[in-house]
Amino acid sequence: MGLAQNKSQKRLKVINNKGSKEDQDQTQTTTSSLQNDVSTSSLHNDVEKSETNLSEATTVTLCDLTDLSEIDALPSFEKSTLKFKQNDIVSAFDEINSFSGGRMNAKITNALIYMITVDHLPLSFTERKGFQYFKKVALPLYKAPGRSTITRQVDEKYTVLSSKIKDKFKLVDNFCLTTDAWTDSLNNRSFLGLTVHYLQETELKSITIGVFLLENKHTYDYIGTALLHCCHEWNISKDKITAVITDNAGNMVKAVHEFFGSKKHLPCFVHTTNLIVTNSLKDVNNIISSVKAIVTFFKTSHDAAQKLRTYQIQNGKTEGSCLKLIQDISTRWNSTYYMLKRFLELAPLISIILFDNQNIKMIDQENIAILKELILVLAPFEAMTVEMSGQNYVTSSKVIPIVHCLKLTLDKVEVSTNVVKQILNKLKEEVARFYSDNSSVEKNNLLSVSSILDPRFKRIHFENPLADTAAVARIKVLIDEHKKNDSVSVSPRNYDKNQEKLTDMTSTGLNLWAVHDKLSIKQNEGVCNNSGIPSELKNYLNQTLSSRTEDPIKFWTSVIKNRLLAEAQVLTPAAKVCSILIDEMAIKVYKQN
């Protein structure tokens, strides 16, 4: 850009006075058009377009001149015919190149603020050497704001956008909250994140409305007060909150029970699954620790890591497709699953590399056999964790069906090693303890009602007839309540052919949803006893089950006049995924900056 500006300072606009008035008008029009387009077109296009238009005009010639004496070399013009205007082409190019002030300056600054916030960059990003060099090359005349200005503008942008979101929230009928606390170990400070979920037309939306510094002791009263204050600040009334999802920590659970109501609390499904698996793996902790030690060795030894890459390339892998060992994370059980699975994939090569190593030894074949069967047992849990961690599709209505499918799938798993047999039995016991006994998911009104109101599942996965009956009774009450305000009627199914296809979950060796698919076929071939049920609900329950890949939200949008009933129950997420992601992003930013 600097080169173009230097060239423009050497250029003169030469006008032939002998040209026609029409030609002169064309020249003026071209120059005027160039100036008018400066603020709305990109710099590069404006420069090229301006030079092209001016060169095509019969009375205008752009010449690169080293000095005024070169004018004599032009055969078509005489010095006496040249007229120099104060508002020449140099001014036009200077206007194109200038970014100080105006709409273009504001547009670039807005894009810069967007990049900083979306990519989680530090507010001092514009003061860093790399960005300064990039700006000098790409936008030499643009004056990037410093940290203090960026901070102020981010706050101003937040004020404007949050005001718009608050106005939008006034029109929303039902909300679900997910919250989680986390600790910044570097600075020994704790934070509380809060994410709100709601339905906009047929799309699930999630917005993180707060990350608060916890300055006092993390009592349930302190946490509950902070959550309520945030909801009030964002125009979210307690009456519109259908559920609050937290982990199983006692202070978080009690905070929701005391401040929002026990019936609105849901334990995070993924966190509960994490507890089930970690409690069941104690008998193989020594083997897992040995694998972790090997992974750590390869992560810290350049020579070992290089040999692993070399052997893979010799076996046909490309440099870009070579696999690396994965280290697990203590708070994510499935990271242990991924670590063990990748270790088994690379075990033959690892064994060769560690053969002569005196510091660390490869695990023996007996433990390798145990790990292979352990992966088979854990595969359904990994598939379930991935399925229930979604943010953009309904998950609460899947809890009862997926737990039922998990139980039946585990019954089909066959293993030969005694250690893994014990782990399999322990997993079944933990699943029953967390999901089927006193804390049965079928007894939870939110989960049971949402499952029945999901046209893909309805009642087929209920193991407890009393829980099924209670859920139907609850729906009858909800229908009566909504009838007072508006009519609720269910019409024949009319699905959109372009409905979004949801996750088709499969797992290694076992398809967890195969159980559901068989039950669905059987259900659609039979007749259910729906006597004593209101006609609207009976009409819905008597319809055949929807395909598992269809979207229940779009179903209710197309068949129900007043969708508030289904919306309030089905939109609830089963896991606090958004809050967890906020935690991880915050930790990442802290570590980087």
From TrEMBL:
GO terms for molecular function: zinc ion binding. SUPFAM superfamilies: Hermes dimerisation domain, Ribonuclease H-like. InterPro entries: RNaseH-like_sf, ZnF_BED_domain_contain. Keywords: Metal-binding, Nucleus, Zinc, Zinc-finger. It is found in: Nucleus. GO terms for cellular component: nucleus. Residues 1-52 are annotated as: Disordered. It comes from the Eukaryota. Residues 26-35 have a biased composition (Low complexity). The keyword Zinc-finger applies. This is Zinc finger BED domain-containing protein 1-like. It comes from Zophobas morio. The lineage of its organism: Eukaryota, Metazoa, Ecdysozoa, Arthropoda, Hexapoda.
